[in-house]
Predict the 3D structure of the following.
Amino acid sequence: MRLYTFTVTPNNRKVEAFVKHFELPVEVHHVSFKDRETHQPEFLAINPMGKVPALVDGDFHLWESNAILTYLAAMFPQTRALPTDVRGRAEVDRWLHWQSCHLMAAVGALKAAEEKDASTIEPLLQILDTQLRDREYVLDGLTVVDFALVAYLLTKVGRGLDYAATPWLAAWRTRMAALKGFVETEVRGAGAAK
């Protein structure tokens, strides 16, 4: 397996951190934007969107970060990062969709300065804080959901948020930032979790 990635962005970092945390036998290839690697015909055959992350497993090409996370978790069940029961999988799907539809949009709006304050993201942080009450992870045990969500809260925008009103979330965020995969994918100058 080969993962095409660019660590700086949360969608890439969450997959790369997952691979590194569980020491999966996946070759990690950092693409060269300078050389327009993602615009070359060879890469477009892997992902016609011309974006990373993208995963190649033999003749199977997969793009979209959450799809890659769940695929890797299914291919490497020893990670125990993807429930196999119907309800457990539905919980994972719900949080992955929440990340891509709500959390990503709110962080993106703050980054683009469309929102001058954190009022859009604060209700989302409260929802996540409530879910994390008396829990070590978002669901029962470390899953792909934790990787998908925290990658957005470890960004520059995420580090600038006030977590005083969300202590369960703050504690989880600190625990996740200390995981091997996130430590190994921290971009120098990006700073640590507060």
Summary: Residues 86-184 form a domain with the Glutathione S-transferase Yfyf (Class Pi); Chain A, domain 2 fold (CATH 1.20.1050.10). Residues 190-194 have pLDDT under 50 and may be disordered.
